[in-house]
Specification:
Elements lengths: L1 E4 L6 H16 L2 H14 L1 E6 L5 E6 L3 E6 L4 E7 L4 E6 L5 E6 L4 E5 L4 E6 L6 E6 L5 E6 L3 E6 L4 E7 L5 E6 L5 E6 L2 E5 L4 E6 L6 E6 L6 E5 L3
């Protein structure tokens, strides 16, 4: 189920446009779908993401690998080998840094060009279900089964803030493009203001778990997908 939750007033046309973009991303093309089916059969895909350019497709699998597939070139360009099953992954906006979250509770940062692990973050005690880079590339948000959202400063390689979700579970974290807001989704959906980390709103319209979210233009609305039919 996909719903549009507006943090502020949004027009129907904006919401419909956002839905069309999401459907286009999901559709990709026959070549990509064929590649994903092949990868899934070989390793069991556990997570999937598409970069800002909509050209790079990231997959993570039970085989402990994270791969970057180039749609235009129709080939897998980069592969990194982690130490545990990959639960979440994302590249930053310039495509130079890859983040992976695994079921051993570790967040790993990779240099895409060299495919080398350049940093590892510990602190979670459950599998890392979601990661999200801020638009400026300075910060990383991570979510885990331990009901914590951790904020990491990639310049200092340190955890500078932790959000505790007392009830329910967390499946997804996502920054808006400005970096002013962070959305947290799972049992419900919450939006935080990143300057103070105050909780601005809690939305629970979904009747089942939220599994994915995406901010619209200028954070005027939020596209939310869940397990409810």
């Amino acid at each position: 189920h996909i719903a549009v939750q507006p943090p502020s007033d949004a027009t129907a046309s904006e919401a419909n446009a956002a839905m069309e973009v999401e459907e286009e991303k999901k559709g990709v093309n026959d070549v990509v779908i064929e590649k994903l089916n092949e990868t899934s059969a070989n390793s069991g895909i556990t997570c999937l993401d598409i970069d800002q350019t909509e050209n790079l497709i990231l997959t993570g699998g039970n085989d402990k690998k994270a791969q970057i597939f180039n749609r235009e070139r129709n080939k897998t360009e980069k592969t990194v080998q982690t130490l545990a099953k990959v639960e979440s992954n994302e590249v930053n906006d310039d495509g130079l840094i890859l983040g992976t979250g695994t079921n051993d509770s570790v967040v790993r940062i990779w240099d895409v060009k060299s495919q080398q692990n350049v940093a590892s973050f510990t602190g979670h005690t459950g599998r890392v279900t979601s990661i999200s880079f801020s638009e400026n590339g300075y910060f990383l948000a991570t979510a885990s089964e331990d009901n914590l959202v951790k904020l990491w400063d990639l310049r200092k390689l340190s955890n500078f803030h932790t959000l505790t979700i007392d009830e329910g579970k967390i499946n997804k974290v996502v920054w808006d493009y400005s970096g002013h807001y962070l959305a947290v989704g799972g049992t419900d959906m919450r939006i935080y203001q990143s300057k103070t980390w105050n909780e601005l709103v809690v939305m629970s319209e979904n009747t089942a778990e939220i599994t994915d979210m995406k901010f619209g233009e200028l954070a005027k609305y939020l596209v939310v997908g869940g397990l409810d039919p």
